[in-house]
Specification:
Strands 1-2-3-4 form a four-stranded antiparallel β-sheet, with helices on one face. It is built from three helices and four strands. By secondary structure, the protein is of the alpha+beta class. It has a single domain (2-90), classed as 2-Layer Sandwich (Beta-lactamase Inhibitory Protein, Chain:B, domain 1).
């Protein structure tokens, strides 16, 4: 019981500092950059596939270490020249801290 309570407190603290809005801002910072830089910084994507426009989708997935339902699926669209042109995400674990300070 104590462990579960401590876990909930940590989640509440993290939720108060890290937000999905900050995560979207972080993803937007990759637009216009090389896909190779993305892979060098973030690591190999879980999946890479083509979309209907002939661009590649680099898909990343993050799951809490305890395999709870909190997860984050992030997708970067990469054009034919290898440049990140768009991104999207879904899931309750798609949060980041502010990059301001």
């Amino acid at each position: 019981m104590r462990k579960a309570f401590a876990y909930v407190l940590v989640l509440l603290f993290m939720a108060s500092c890290a937000t999905s809005k900050n995560y979207a801002i972080l993803l937007d910072s990759w637009k216009g950059r090389a896909a190779g830089d993305l892979v060098a910084k973030v690591g190999e994507p879980r999946k890479v596939y083509d979309n209907d426009q002939g661009n590649k989708i680099y898909e990343y997935q993050r799951v809490n270490p305890d395999h709870s339902i909190l997860r984050c699926v992030t997708k970067f669209e990469v054009d034919q020249s290898g440049t990140v042109i768009d991104s999207d995400f879904e899931g309750g674990n798609c949060v980041a801290f502010s990059q301001d300070g």
